């Protein structure tokens, strides 16, 4: 987010200066409106998948890509120790103003502390950006987990977008993994630099987790091909007796 248009929009809404919403699109989808009010939602206004993730949270929590801080604020009110991080300076400023006690402008790969729960929501696998980088991110997340810690991450299987009327699956085999997309964001006629974004189907995420010694399971499935996954340290194999 080189121009931090997202942060500017959050600040405008918080300060009562917003006159329009964010416009988003991807390389495989048309323009859509992202209402700024949605980014300031309360727990009761959150989709079920986010509510489930917050219910499953435990111990010391890291909120990755905290945005305006809605998830962190809810957990703080429940007595959790929470650290919120975001690469958007505006998002960090808004989170602080809203009352998030521990928030820092920081990329996930630069985080060094360890946690019991790591929350990566709102299509959390998007932070991995590219399929080839998933093992690198998972290894880093693994290093941030306490012994009985968990990563709660959501995503969507967008394979359905490539189905034809007969239920067949079509894709350009030279284009790479179907979940890799370019993400575009604009606000008040200002456009952000295109970002890489990754939608991971569960099978692919599960295989990637196993390859780095992590266990992955679905803990909630939504109505629109979305899911919430819980990732934890894989149990160690018992030593063979010779």
From TrEMBL:
GO terms for molecular function: methyltransferase activity. CDD domains: AdoMet_MTases. Keywords: Methyltransferase, Transferase. One of its GO terms (biological process) is methylation. Pfam families: Methyltransf_23. Coiled coil: none annotated. The keyword Transferase applies. SUPFAM superfamilies: S-adenosyl-L-methionine-dependent methyltransferases (SSF53335). It comes from the Bacteria. This is Class I SAM-dependent methyltransferase. It comes from Oceanihabitans sediminis. The lineage of its organism: Bacteria, Pseudomonadati, Bacteroidota, Flavobacteriia, Flavobacteriales.
